[in-house]
Design a protein that fits this description.
4-stranded antiparallel sheet; 28% helix; single chain; alpha+beta; Immunoglobulin-like
Length: 173
Amino acid sequence: MPIDLPALPPTPRAPFRLSGRFVLFAMIGFFVVVAGVNAVMMTIAIRTMPGVDVKSAYETSQRFNQEIARMRAQAERGWHVDADLRRDGGAEVVAVTFSDKSGQPVAGLSVDVRLEHPARRGSDRQLELPEVAPGRYLARLADLPSGAWTVALTARRDGAAIFDTRSRVILKD
């Protein structure tokens, strides 16, 4: 015959008490998490955009007066340059047109274009644009992501840079 035992009353649970040790560990844990997230975000940000435009600011400063003289000569030429980045079928097209003060095409240049992504330097592309018509230079490339790009253009004649410009463009799908 089974024996019925009387039910034991539940043991009362001790009420939660906020102790100094709990607060200390909670605060330490909070700041460890915040510092860890900041370290990860900082590392990602610095790796994708180090914030440096030139490798040596000193060397750049030594050429400053030469750059000013070159930019004045560029302005005195009065060239009009029209640069375009667009999608054409399955490829992207970079087209640049040079004309002088009187509107005549400027031919015989060696034109280099650097497409710079504002956030990911690994996406940058360097192109040499052949002359397809007098004063018109064009190149095609593939797999360029949509979005904002900086078009850094340099035109050379006899190896010397005679025209530089940078402009921001948006490449749409």
